[in-house]
TrEMBL record:
Reactions performed catalytically: adenosine(37) in tRNA + dimethylallyl diphosphate = N(6)-dimethylallyladenosine(37) in tRNA + diphosphate
Record keywords: ATP-binding, Magnesium, Nucleotide-binding, Transferase, tRNA processing
KW tRNA processing (keyword) present: yes
Cofactor(s) this protein requires: Mg(2+)
Family annotation (Pfam families): IPPT
Gene Ontology terms, MF aspect: ATP binding; tRNA dimethylallyltransferase activity
Organism, as annotated: marine metagenome
Protein name: tRNA dimethylallyltransferase
Length: 314
């Protein structure tokens, strides 16, 4: 294949609140690109403030894809992300636009660049076994069982994250191997795109300060009212409503958390999530680490990659 016909992607990733969005927006303007959101929560309609979706002005400034495409009672998987993103990349390539992925869902990015993890099919018997355990003891019983079989995997999941817990339990019961063993398989020989991929890297104290400030900013923007409105239409056990911040606000609305308890807890859970994201990205040897303020150097490196594969800038 002519190298000029191979889609070239830019991937701007990193932990929450690290400055991915503003950097990606600027790169899209400089490179003649459009943004593809690589975030497992921003696909859901109605989860706006708590997922830090781009503002209307930012969406006018640069086209964004994969925002607000499913309702929160619908399932959207890594496979769905790959299929939708492949379609968008082809469409952008036909218009000579550089696809720029932006977001912190590492599994989505890896699945696009190297293909989906080859997890064996789960037997109907195993699915029945896990469903019976959930029916008898709830999600907490499934999490406890997962903790017995895959302690490190269970520790990465919130005990109320029903869908992920059940999936992880099904995999280890069916294969004898933790889900992470399939997700961590390196596949550089299966690289599907040319790309420049970078992690927004900030000193830990700087990142945590940004997380704390962002939490306060989102609450001031009306995050609690957003959750209250969602609960008018959806039950609170849905997976998106169990994500960071949303779950805590629901507990607050139920009277189980005071406001003085709510804010520190959201900050703490967000910092813990950022640590898990950093752990994931450190395993991704194909990504380079850059401070997002070093944007001129990042831009030049993107341009060098484009020149190497013979693609002209818009």
């Amino acid at each position: 294949m002519n190298p000029a016909n191979i889609p070239f992607l830019v991937a701007v990733t990193g932990p929450t609140s690290s400055g991915k969005s503003s950097l990606a927006l600027w790169l899209a303007e400089m490179l003649g690109g459009e943004l593809i959101c690589c975030d497992s929560m921003q696909v859901y309609r109605g989860l706006d403030i708590g997922t830090a979706k781009p503002t209307p002005a930012e969406r006018i400034r640069i086209a964004h894809h994969l925002l607000d495409i499913v309702n929160i009672d619908e399932i959207f998987s890594a496979g769905d992300f790959v299929r939708e993103t492949e379609r968008i990349i082809k469409e952008l390539q036909s218009r000579n636009k550089v696809p720029i992925l932006v977001g912190g869902t590492g599994l989505y990015l890896r699945s696009l660049l190297f293909g989906l993890s080859q997890i064996p099919e789960i037997s109907p018997e195993t699915k029945i076994q896990v469903n019976e355990l959930k029916s008898g003891g709830g999600t907490r019983a499934c999490w406890q069982r997962l903790k017995e079989l895959d302690p490190s995997g269970a520790e990465k999941l919130h005990p109320n994250d029903s869908s992920r817990i059940m999936r992880a339990l099904e995999v280890i019961l069916s294969t004898g191997k933790p889900l992470s063993s399939f997700q961590q398989i390196e596949a550089p020989s299966n690289q599907r795109y040319s790309f420049y991929g970078m992690v927004c890297d900030r000193p830990r104290e700087e990142l945590y300060e940004r997380i704390n400030n962002k939490t306060l900013e989102m609450l001031e923007q009306g995050w609690i009212d957003e959750v209250r409105s969602l609960l008018d239409d959806y039950p609170d056990h849905l997976k998106p409503l169990q994500s960071i911040g949303y779950r805590e606000i629901i507990l607050h609305l139920k009277g189980e958390l005071t406001e003085s308890e709510l804010i520190p807890l959201i900050k703490q859970r967000t910092r813990q999530y950022a640590k898990r994201q950093l752990t994931w990205f450190r395993r991704e040897s194909h990504l380079i680490w850059k401070h997002p303020d070093d944007k001129q150097r990042i831009l030049e490196e993107c341009r060098v990659c484009l020149e190497k594969i013979g693609q002209n800038l818009a």
